[in-house]
Amino acid sequence: MKKVLVLLSLIFALLNASELKFATQKNVGELNPHLYSPNEMFAQNMVYEGFVAYSEDNKIIPALATSWDISKDGLVYTFYLRKGVKFSNGEDFNANVVKANFDAIFANKQRHISFALVRAFDRLEVVDDYTVKIHLKHIYEPTLRELSLIRPFRFIAPSAMIDGNTKDGIKAAIGTGKWIFVDTKLGVYDKFKKNENYWEEKAKVDDILCKVIPDPSTRVIALKTGEIDYVYGMGAIGLEDFVNFKDTEFKTIISEPLSTVLIALNTGANVTKDIKLRKALNMAIDKDAISKYVFYGTQKRADFFYPENVPNGKIDRKAYEYNPKKAQKMLIDNGYKLGKDKMLYKDNKPLEIRLSFIGTNAEHKAIAEVMQSQLRQIGINLILNADESTIFYKRQRTGEFDMTFNETWGAPYEPEIFMASMIAPSHADYMAQKGLKQKALIDSNIEKIAQTMDNEEKIKLAKEILTILHDEAVYIPIVYTTNKGVASPKIKGYKSSILKYAIPFDDIEFEK
Predict the structure, then answer these.
(1) What is the CATH number of domain 179-255+483-510?
(2) Parallel, antiparallel, or unpaired for β 251-254 and 60-62?
(3) CATH of 49-159, one of 3.30.9.10, 3.30.450.20, 3.90.76.10, 3.40.190.10
(4) Quick check: 307 and 480 in contact, CB under 8 A?
(5) Is 332 helix (H, G, I), strand (E, B) or coil?
(6) What is the pLDDT of residue 11?
(7) What is the pLDDT of residue 315?
(8) Phi, psi (5° rounding) for residue 365?
(9) Sign of CA dihedral 355, 356, 360, 364
(10) CA gap 375, 357 in Å, rounded
(11) Cβ(224)–Cβ(236) under 8 Å?
């Protein structure tokens, strides 16, 4: 009789199991939390946790550390680890696990060198089984925020590492998170199941099946036929299709501004080193038209480096006005002449500027084509370099661009952690700013921001950096990005996140 009852309970559980079918563009990868490409960050966030997390109201909250202390000199962070936490394979989480993970991360230090915390890190001390201390070489105020990032400071079970390291991959994606990575089929799906032994509130659906559907139009059909229940994220669905789902039984959601799409102008290049040209370019681009015709109004025009919801991101400046006639006059007053072809020339040379973007990025391609048309109206020939991704990023590292697409990282990176990357020569921001006489000041301010615990001083330093970048017209802000989602009428509890690379699955459930 007992066996019959057990069998019936298993059958009942199977019949009532819930599986959320979610569309992805590609497989999520091996999910190594200590490396980057080709892992999908949303999936890493599902499986792995760090000391702390970043909340939807912009606060640092406990995760695998229940609390922490910061020494008076700001150089030592003591973390008190959560007891009783187990990895999904049953291994205990403790201080030795933390040490093994930090050893693995710093064995591959150069890969993470753009993170200021990596540069500031001195050593990790194990105090006891559930207490560790991070010692820094110098004060780095955003330490807790950087530890909340999806990578690299997340913890993997030591047994899942290859020879105690994660440099060359991992044996299995074994974390402490709400979800367990259980199965994958290349080009078809990735499957996650709810972690029944999770230390906090568990997810509301039992499984998530991430179906690989690369084509956005095919995802629309899959939604309508019930093959999938949900899509979410940048580029997850065509913008026209997204708009068409409004006022139907399907539910659409759109996030608050997450980051900024920018055009970085090379201040050291032959053409764009001219500040008057950079200012004219800022005045010649109709961002409202880009918002309307490229993004169907789902991403609003950007006038500044950051949207207003970014802490310490606001400056006391007016936006560059859209005024193509004034922009053209500014260039003519600067020595350019209009030819019979209505194009601008100086010293018998046409005004030509090259814009680099990844050729497979449809949104950037559309923006580039609109900009090309708009700049032609004032006599500028914008040459579009539709690069393969490796060439695109090589140009950014070497500074071989006049203009290039760039994007901020969003919470919790902004502004200090993102600004810290501006010091690294491997980034477009460094190369774009390199020709500025104030570059040394910018870099100095960035270092000072990271090394002060005084919030008022941080605000002052960040504002000075952003004001210089605005006054020098180093960037053309285009639009503020958003994540968009479409949900089947069968589900509820879906929502957007302030975190650009996270997908809030935990409260989703099926309608009764």
Answers:
(1) 3.40.190.10
(2) unpaired
(3) 3.40.190.10
(4) yes
(5) helix
(6) 43
(7) 94
(8) -60, -45
(9) negative
(10) 17
(11) no
